[in-house]
Amino acid sequence: MFNNDLSISIIIPVYNSKNYLSSCIDSIINQKGSFSIQLIIVDDGSTDGSFEFIESKYSKINFIEIYRIDHSGQSKARNFGLSIAKNSLISFIDSDDLIPSDYFLKLTHYFTIEDVDLVCCPLVKFKFDNDLIFKRLNLESTSIKFTKNSALEELPNNKLITFSPTNKIYRRKLFDNISFKEDTIFEDLDLSYKLINKCRIVIYSSSTNYFYRIHSNSTMTSAYSLKRIDEFNRKKDLYFFYSLSNLSLNIILLTKIIYIYSGIIVFIKMDSKVNIKNISFLIDFNKNYLKEILFRSRYLKINFLILSLFISKKIIVFYRFLYKIYL
Question: ∠ at Cα 183 (194, 46), nearest 5°?
C-alpha cells in the first residue's frame, strides 16, 4: 500500500515583490478541494514593505505561517521553509507567480492512484495578469508516467520535466539530506536531478498549469553578469552526474553540449575589459571534453550550429583562443 496523505506544505520565498503578493497568495487561498495546508511565507529581508503587507493582510489566517530572515537569497529562504515543513507533500511557489484554482486538486489526484514521488505540470510564462485569461483556454489534458531513468533522460530537455522547483509537488522524503545550494544562482540546476534520482515514479500532467511571471529583474531575464559563471558550474555538475550514470549515450552527450555551450556563452558575454587569463579556468580543467566536442570531425555539425548562432568577432576570438590551447 502506498501513502496517499494529501497534506501539503507550500513554501513561498519573498523578496521585494509587494505588488504581486495579493495575486499570488490569494490564488493559493482560493484553491478548490479539501486539503490540510501549511502555507509557509518566508520574507528574505524585503525593503519594499512586503513583510509588513503580508503581516497586515494574512497573519490571522490559521494555516499561514509568516517568517522573516536576514537577506540571504532565495535558496536560504526555501531551505528555511523546508526546515519547518510538517506535511507529507511539498510545493514551491514564487511570490510573483500564480496558480489556477484547480492546481492542487488536479495534481494531488495522482498521489491517490499511484505510488508517485513527484508530479509536475506545464510551466506557462506570462507578463500581466490579464494574459492568463487567454492562456487557460486551450488545455488538452494528458499525463505521462516516467520511471526514475526515463525522467532523468527527459530532464535535460527542460520541457515536460523542467529544472524549476516550482510547477511540481514532491514527496517530503525526497528532501531528506538534500537542500538548495545557497549563495549561488541557478540553484535549480543543482537540485533537480538529485531529487529525480531519488524518485521511483514521476508523473507529468497537463490537466493544470503553473503560471510563471516574467519581468525585467527575473534571474533568467536580467542583464548578464559575472555571476552567470554559476550557470556554467551548475551545468558542469549536471554533466558529471550524467556521465557516471547508466543512461543513454545521447542524453550524456546532450548534457555535455549544454555544459560546453554555457561555457562558450560565458566567454562571449564577458565584458571586454576582463583579461582572458582570468577566465581561462573555464576551459583549462576540462580540456579533453572540450577538445572532443569542438575539434573531432564527427562533431562538425555541432561546430557549425554554434558558429551559426553567434555571428560576431567574439566567437572568432573564442575559437582562436581554443586553437591556441589545443593545436
Answer: 115
Extract the runs of DSSP E, i.e. beta strands, from the chain. 8-14, 37-43, 64-68, 89-92, 118-120, 123-126, 143-147, 168-171, 201-205, 210-213
Closest to 27 (Cα-Cα) out of 109, 94, 78: 94
| Domain assignments of the chain as residue spans, ordered by start | 8-213, 226-326
Taking CA atoms, 327 is separated from 75, 280, 282, 316, 318, in Å, by: 42, 16, 18, 16, 14
In whole angstroms, give the CA distance from residue 245 to residue 147: 15
d(CA 294, CA 132): 43
Q: What is the pLDDT of residue 131?
A: 62
CA-wise closest residue to 36 among 91, 93, 83, 77: 91
Per CATH, the number for 8-213 is: 3.90.550.10
**Inter-residue contact 26 to 34 (CB < 8 Å):** no
Instruction: Determine contact, residues 8/91, Cβ cutoff 8 Å.
Output: yes
Q: Is the Cβ–Cβ distance between 206 and 142 less than 8 Å?
A: yes
**Residue 162 and residue 202: Cα distance in Å, rounded?**
12
Confidence of residue 277 (pLDDT cuts 50, 70, 90): low
Residue 71, classed as helix, strand or coil, is coil
For residue range 210-257, list pLDDT tens digits in order: 999 987 655 444 444 556 677 778 888 888 899 899 888 778 777 776
59-110 pLDDT, tens per residue?
999 999 999 999 999 999 999 999 999 999 999 999 999 999 999 999 999 9
68: CB partners within 8 A, 6+ apart: 42, 43, 45, 51
Mean per-residue pLDDT for 151-172? 95
pTM beyond cutoff 0.90: no
What is the spatial distance between Cα 69 and Cα 42, in angstroms, rounded to a whole number?
7
**Chain center to CA of 199:** 17
